[in-house]
Each structure stands twice: as C-alpha cells, then as structure tokens.
Design a protein that fits this description.
With about 300 residues, the chain is of the alpha/beta class. The protein has 9 helices and 13 strands. The strands form 2 sheets. It has a 9-stranded mixed beta sheet, with helices on both faces. Helix 1 packs across helix 8, helix 6 packs across helix 7 and helix 8 packs antiparallel against helix 9.
Length: about 300
Amino acid sequence: MSGAGGDRAGGGLLVVGDVVTDVVARHRGPLAPATDTAADIRTVPGGAGANAACWAAHSGCPDVRLLSRVGRDAAAWHDLRLRRSGVRPLLIPDADAPTATVIALVGTATAERTFLTDSGAVHRMSPADWSPALLDGVAHLHLSGYLLFAEQCRQLAIAARESARRAGVTVSLDPASTGFIADLGVERFLTMTEGVDALLPNADEAAFLTGLPEPADAAAKLSRQFPLVAVTLGAAGALVATDGEVIARVAAPEVAALDSTGAGDAFTGAFLAARLRGASPAEAAEAGCRAGALAVGVVGGRPSVE
C-alpha cells in the first residue's frame, strides 16, 4: 500500500511524539487583562502524538505503540491513561525535566483555542532513545512534527525515519505548528521531511508551507513532494491530494463543538488506522473527519474512556 499504511500485513502503528499534560481553560467571555476571567478548568492527558495514538486505537487499530519522554513524576499517570486508551506506552522517564505542559485557552463561543506550551522532557528526546528494533512488527511509523523543533529530538526523528525507510515501513508526519515552522524556516522544514510518505497538515499549515492560501492549491503543491497529502479543513472537512492533484474532498459531520483541542490529532489517528486496514485515501479521510467530529464534542484531545 502506498502512502500511510505500509505493506506489512497485520503490522502495527508506532507513533513517536509528545506526551503532554494539558490544562484546558474554557472561558465564557473575552479574557480580562489584570483581573479575573471566569473559566472551567480541567487537567487532562494530551500531546499531539499521544492523542493521535489514542484515536488510532479507538478507531480499531489493534496494535498502537507510543514512544515519548516524560517527567519521572508524571510517568505513571500518563502510562496508565495511555493503556486505558488501548495504546502500548514506551515512555522514557526523565529525572531532569518535567512532562511537557500546555495551557489551552478555549473560548466557549467559538471552541477555538490558543496554546501556551512548555515542551519539557519531549525536547530532550535524542537518537539514544531510538532503536531500529522498535519497528519489529510495525507497518507504519508516524512522527509528530513537534519533534522537528529542537535539535536533539530532530535527530531522533531523522534516525527513526531512516530506520523505517531501510525496513520498508512507511512514514507519516503532521507539521504541528505554523509558529514553530516559522522559527525553523519553511525550506529547512521541507528539506528535513524529505522521504516522508504522507503529510497531514491543517489548512493553515498547508498554506504556510506553500504560500498558497487556497487549501486545494496548497495540497496539490505539497503532493508533488509527498506521495500522499491530507489537509484538514475544520468544520469544512478535508481534502486529499496525490501527484499534484486533489483526488478527494470529504465533508465533516455537523456537530456542536465544545472544544476543538485535538481534532486534528483525531483525524490523524483515525486516518492512519483506516489506511492500515486497507482503506483508500478518501475512505481514510472520511474516517478521520468522523473522529474529528467526535473530538470536538469532548474537553481535551482524546476519546472518552469508560
């Protein structure tokens, strides 16, 4: 199978990325400077890589693994929550840095969010944390784009990608953040992601990477470098491009949004799970949009676990 999914029959999904403690503050009005703003505040497990892994398991992928680095004090808490979501954690406890933390400010009127990010232990991941043996039984490797924005974990991501290519394992990547891409540089980002089989950006990231404001144009251009591109469009759904051409446009289910945190991660996880089952790119995008619609109905970035 070309693009995200690989051709190792029955193989699993390995996600390499971030585990984060999310502090989600849902405020009912504009933020009031220098005084109080009423909000509902919850602490939940998150992280783009971890969220995508949980949604892949929720979407029926029977073997999902997650490699990440966390603070030693929170390792057991995150390990338990990943296992409850059906993910096999491969967490490296760090004695010298806390688990990454994100404060998500979510306006209830729009469900849109603003992030304050402390990358903590995630950006201390390094090639020493990687082994090609981690790919045993794996059909597809997914890399969180957040790995590319600090030197140590950037080298880890490159090592993982090269190991996957040698092993015949396909690779996908989500660009993660326009702000971090701006700091890194678009050309450098595109150079470092050469050899990735599937790119999964949102519309803003696709536009930023190409300079093209229209998502279809941006997706088509990106698909000349990446064999498969799926661009998420929020409530407007998603589109899929290959070989310089948009091949599918997928509508999203209409839902009342509570919190948009993790919607893109839900798309990624469900998309990859569907591809591993043999779904076409368009079918996988439909599965991703359904998961994204579920994600905006819960607070935090992961599926609800009974």
